[in-house]
Design goal:
Two copies of one chain form a homodimer.
Chain A: H1 4-10, E1 46-49, E2 52-57, E3 64-66, E4 69-70, H2 72-94, E5 107-116, E6 126-135, E7 139-148, E8 151-162
Antiparallel strand pairs in A: 1-2, 2-6, 3-4, 5-8, 6-7, 7-8
C-alpha cells in the first residue's frame, strides 16, 4: 500500500493536494465521519489517485468488534463518507470543474451496502479505494473497497444523491 | 414510541429483563457498538418485545452529518449491532433455549444494506425495531427499522452468520 503522504511526496505538483472534504461548504463540514469542523469525529479525507479515489484511516484501539479486529460500524461509516465524498468530487469533475475552483455540492447517502469479506485487523492502516460507476444529474454510484495490509476486507456500494436544497 | 424503561415498568415480570448483549461470552463483549466492556463505545442494548426486537439510542450532539441531523455511519452501526444481536438471540430462541440459561453464540455481520429514507434528527431517541426473516443453521437474516419521533428514517437488512470457531 502507498501511503497518501508518500503519494504526495512522489508528485510535487500535488504537494498542496487537498481532500474533497476540504471543499465542502463550511456549514456542511461538520460530519462526524469526515467533517474537518467536527473535533470529536474521524475527519476522514478523500483524494483522487488517478481515476480512483483514496482515503486512509487508522482505527483507534477501542474501535473493535472483539479484541484484535475492527467493528463493522466503523467500516460502514468510512465507506459511507468516502463514497459520498467521491460522489461529490466525481460529479464536480464530470461537470468540468477543477477541484479547488469552487466549493463542492454536498452529496448524501441514499443507500449503502457493505459485504464483510474478512475480519479487519485493528492495528493496520485501512486503505479505502473508490471507483465511480455512474454519474447522473443528481445521483452518483460508487464502489469502495477497504483493505488492510494488502487484503480486501470489505466491499461497499454507495448510492449518493445531491443534498436537496431544503436540507 | 414506548421507551424500553416504560415497557419494563408495564410488565413486572420483565423487571430483570436483560439485553441480548449481556449474554455474549465475556471475550466477545468488547464491541464498540454494543459491548458492555467497551467504555468508549455506544453500548447498544437489544431486547425482545414480543416477536420483534427493540433497542433505543440517544445520539450525542456531535454525531451529526450536518447540524441537526445524525450522520449515516452511526445509523449503520446501530443497525449492524442490533441486527447481529437479534440474530444471535433469534437462533438461540429457535433452538428452544430461554434467554439467560446460557451464553449466546456470537454472530457477525456478513452483509448489511441500509436505505436512508429521511434525515434523522439528532435530538430524538432513536428506536430500532428488528424483524427476523430467516433463521438457518448458521445464517440469520434480520430487517431493522430506525425511527425518530415516530417516523421511520432508515431501513436496514442484515445477514449475520455465526462467528467461525477460528475467530
Amino acid at each position: 500500500m502507498n501511503l497518501i503522504s508518500d503519494l504526495i511526496q512522489a508528485d510535487p505538483y500535488t504537494v498542496e493536494m487537498k481532500a474533497f472534504q476540504d471543499f465542502y461548504p463550511g456549514e456542511y463540514n461538520h460530519c462526524f465521519g469526515c467533517g474537518s469542523k467536527n473535533e470529536h469525529g474521524h475527519q476522514l479525507k478523500s483524494y483522487w489517485d488517478g481515476e480512483q479515489s483514496v482515503a486512509q484511516f487508522k482505527p483507534e484501539s477501542f474501535h473493535i468488534a472483539f479484541p484484535g479486529y475492527v467493528y463493522g460500524g466503523l467500516i460502514a461509516s468510512l465507506i459511507d463518507c468516502h463514497g459520498s465524498g467521491t460522489a461529490a468530487a466525481a460529479k464536480f469533475r464530470a461537470d468540468g470543474h477543477e477541484l479547488g475552483s469552487q466549493s463542492l455540492d454536498r452529496y448524501v447517502t441514499a443507500s449503502i451496502k457493505v459485504d464483510y469479506l474478512a475480519p479487519t485487523p485493528i492495528d493496520e492502516i485501512l486503505d479505502l479505494r473508490g471507483t465511480v460507476l455512474e454519474v447522473g444529474k443528481r445521483k452518483v454510484i460508487v464502489d469502495v473497497t477497504v483493505s488492510a495490509a494488502g487484503k480486501v476486507c470489505a466491499k461497499g456500494h454507495v448510492i449518493a444523491v445531491k443534498m436537496p436544497d431544503h436540507m
